[in-house]
Specification:
Layout (H helix, E strand, L loop, with lengths): L8 H18 L12 H10 L5 H14 L3 H6 L2 H8 L5 H18 L8 H4 L7 H10 L11 H9 L8 H11 L5 H14 L29 H12 L1
Helix pairs in contact: 1-11, 2-8, 5-6, 9-11
The chain binds iron/sulfur cluster.
Length: 238
């Protein structure tokens, strides 16, 4: 069972409305930052993004996706070659194994296509709900859940939307609070907010559109270091 919230359900509903409104205002065009041209590319990029920045993944996939176009292409590659090609994303042995395992299953079980249901996607090696939610939302426009990556996990805690200790439980808490219609955009908006403003080490609370609803003990209202200020301005122009 999830730890109890300090807010009543009525207060929480009011807060959620304010949060959704603030996110819409700040990030009207938030979208997936992983570059891809189709479902297979997004699946591979999302597997590679575990414990890695999207920027790094995009650098690696720029070349990878020129060479590998189909699941069969990944299966034909010697494991050690694929490992070297994705090495800089970290955990490369495991990721290469998962990519080839997932491609094997795509070929054997799904006719070479990326499936479009949660039930099928999470059968693929290396694919948990987070990756499945990214693919379902971005490629198929299906809101079957909410993407909980490291940013969403942190922001959900700071905003008192969840106090659970696993991504699965945080997702379930969020699904109970956020109306289904904005699940896809909410995921992208919170990821962008976590990346640009509600940073792990030094959140830029003075620029935060959610500051009024946030009661986090991590809140920092002092004026930021000039370096953080510059980064924040750069981020908001992107
Ligand atoms: S006020 Fe600060 S801690 Fe709270 S959501 Fe905004 S950036 Fe994060």
């Amino acid at each position: 069972m999830s730890p109890k919230s300090r807010f009543s359900s009525q207060e929480q509903a009011r807060r959620v409305k304010q949060i959704l409104k603030g996110l819409d205002k700040a990030y009207p065009d938030a979208r997936c930052a992983l570059q891809h041209r189709n479902a297979l590319e997004l699946l591979i990029a999302t597997i590679l993004s575990a414990q890695c920045t999207d920027e790094r993944v995009n650098l690696v996939t720029r070349e990878l996706f020129q060479k590998y176009r189909t699941p069969e292409d990944y299966l034909k590659a010697p494991r050690n070659v694929l490992e070297e090609e994705i090495r800089s994303t970290g955990f490369y042995r495991n990721k290469a194994k998962n990519i080839q395992g997932a491609c094997q299953m795509l070929v054997e079980k799904f006719g070479g296509r990326v499936p479009d249901t949660m039930e099928e996607l999470i059968q693929l090696p290396g694919v948990a709900r987070k990756t499945a939610n990214v693919v379902l939302g971005v490629i198929f426009g299906k809101a079957e859940g909410i993407v909980v990556d490291t940013h969403v996990f942190r922001v959900a805690h700071r905003l008192d939307l969840s106090h659970s200790d696993t991504p699965e439980k945080v997702e379930s808490d969020l699904m109970g609070l956020i109306p289904r219609t904005p699940w896809i955009s909410f995921s992208h908006q919170v990821i962008q907010h976590g990346r640009q403003v509600c940073k792990a080490r030094r959140p830029l609370c003075h620029t935060c559109v959610l500051e009024k609803v946030c009661q986090s003990s991590d809140k920092v209202l002092a004026f930021p270091h000039p370096r953080d200020q510059k980064l924040s301005e750069r981020g908001s122009r992107q």
